[in-house]
Amino acid sequence: MIDDIEVLCHACGGEGRRPEAKVSTLGGVPHTATVSLPCSWCEGVGRREGIDPPA
Ligand SMILES: [Zn+2]
């Protein structure tokens, strides 16, 4: 049986970080900056233990 396997995190694709667009206004001009945040699914590891059961 498979009971000790790590799979790539689906949320971040194994990167461990996810890009997130942030909009800020500087001097009345909106800017969009992309920041990368640690993935909340895998806590930045990029892998998760176990297999997600197919829906
Ligand atoms: Zn992740």
Low-confidence stretches: none
List SSEs in N-to-C order. EEEE
Mean pLDDT: 85
Q: What is the total number of structural domains? A: 1
Distance between the termini: 20 Å
Percentage of residues in DSSP E strands:
over 45%
Description:
The protein is mainly β and 55 residues long. It contains no helices and four strands. The protein has one domain. The strands form two sheets. It has a two-stranded antiparallel sheet. The chain has a two-stranded antiparallel ribbon with strand order 2-3. The mean pLDDT is 85. The structure holds zinc ion. The site of zinc ion has 8 residues, from loops.
Question: In terms of topology, how is this protein built?
Answer:
Blueprint: E1 6-8, E2 17-26, E3 29-38, E4 47-49
Antiparallel strand pairs: 1-4, 2-3
Bound molecules: zinc ion (ZN).
Zinc ion (ZN) is lined by residues 9, 11-12, 16, 39, 41-42, 46.
Brief summary:
With 55 residues, this protein is mainly beta. 0% of the residues lie in helices and 47% in strands.
Structural descriptors:
binds zinc ion; two-stranded antiparallel sheet; mainly beta; two-stranded antiparallel ribbon; 4 strands; 55 residues
